[in-house]
Request: fold
Amino acid sequence: MATEVRPYGSWTSPISAEMLTSQATRMVDAWLTEDNALYWIEVRSQEGGRFAVMRLREGEKEPMQVTPAPYSVRTRVHEYGGSPLAIVGETLFFSNYGDHRIYRQRPGEDPQPITAPAKMRYADPIWDSERDRLIAIREDHTTSDIQAVNALVAIDPEAGGTGQVLVQGYDFYLYPRLSQDGRRLAWICWNHPNMPWDGTELWVADVTPEGDVVNAVQVAGGPEESVIQPAWSPEGDLYCVSDRTGWWNLYRVTDGGLEAITDQAVEYGQPNWQIGTMNYAFYGEQILAFYGDKGYDHLVLINPKTRQLAAIDLPYTVMGQICANRYRAVFFAGSPTEPWALVSLDPGTGSTTVIKASSRPLLDVEDISIPEAIEFPTERGRTAHAFFYPPKNHRFAAPEGEKPPLLVFSHGGPTGQTEALYGLGMQYWTTRGFAVVDVNYGGSTGYGREYRNRLYDSWGLLDVEDCTNVALYLAEEGRVDINRLAIRGGSAGGYTTLACLTFRDVFHVGASYFGVSDIGALARETHKFESRYMDKLVGPWPEAESTYQARSPVFHAEKLTSPVIFFQGLDDKVVLPNQAELMVESLRERGIPVAYLPFEGEGHGFVRAENVIRAQEAELYFYAQIMGIDLTERIEPVAIHNWPQR
Reply:
């Protein structure tokens, strides 16, 4: 097929907005049993987002759904949840999202509740086989959501109730882990104002034959050390991941403290936004672990006695949530050309089998824009990180000398990370002739503690600097059109988007998806897990109220002079609609081109397919109008105030 010459941004794409809402299966968490059965959780979008447990036994070709409707195996502990299931033989114990109770499901039977109806939430249950009980994290919301009380509790499946408290006193708990003989319990805990990537503690205690937890001692961690992911080896040794050197590395707990198993400038850990995340697993006497290095993940087999690492070459750049038994390992993985998938690995041979992919590749390889990891100069003599996606569509070429418009993606979090993973959302733009840069601004994870800590006291400053400087860097390199720079983001990424447009004169257009315009609102009204998050990013509330106002776009709307399109759920309880509406009204009154698309029934993040489609197409339409791009596809027009639409 001959290449057609057409301006950037106007190329005909093989990806429609409808395709972004279909063809995908979201998968979270995975477990391997000793008899080599594999369990995982799939999100049933056609059933209102129900989380269903799937099982694939050894020798079976097709998985079966284990948990029936309407049960949804999901927890809201720390709001973000994670690890809602324990497997004992073929009996499941799980947290049900509908009522937050723990249920037991025996083979061939319907699930039955084993905890009482109460304002309690449970997560990360483990089975105590010596005492026939569960040990789990419990979050007590009896008083209020923001004053929830967290503890480790024991749950007798035959007794009912809400659990017997074993360990309490800290604001948060993670990773209750019993030794193989049931005599020792390890856990992670921390207090406000820290987040789990700031500073945590690892404790170990004895467990009496009667089940009491006694003689507890802190063995690692502190207010400025993030220790995570404790696990007992088959030999009875306790391991963990700590960032005491500035990077999350793997350690063994000894009587003298922590003994380093790895000592690299890479990340064997990741932030615990969700409960139960693991980067390593025991395979016989060895350890399988993956680490992140400058945005890419790598898998290694570690001999903990000699500390020697053997790399396992795999065609994946992103990995997550590994588990293993004596037969194999299972984890999630993907790459720029391979969708996120549940993968089985034979560590002996290095061979892999895809158990299930989240979607099938819908693009020809020749149309996939492969991201390039870039480092670019930013303020104070530093460099920052991003992935650059050039325009890519084998059917089209741009006129000679033309440079593409650039979309800067600002991720949420803000303590998050963007990764080099296949996704139609990114390729939607690149196949139309847009360049995209996905920014891991200072404060992002994956680049060590110093990089992560850059955002302390600097949210709304440093992220703004990095997102503007990457656009200027790419323009100076001659890779994008300096006169067509756009920025977009959602939630915290929407805040960075609005701050860039308000406080910097670099971007010509932007898109805010339920973006925060008043960061003080996050400090005043949020859930317990994040209620002190702003202390380190901005300052303590209300002492630093003037700082919050200085960095909140809503109080400086008169400085925003670039066209913006706003997308907002009218049922959003995190970012209230008035945060967008005040900005919209200011732009309207001052004659700045602005569009506003509110969606009834949507909260913080859009889930209805028709709204996702409308928002995606409206964003494209808005850019085309502002940038002077002639679209060849038919899109329902968007009402743009103060703009003579063509």
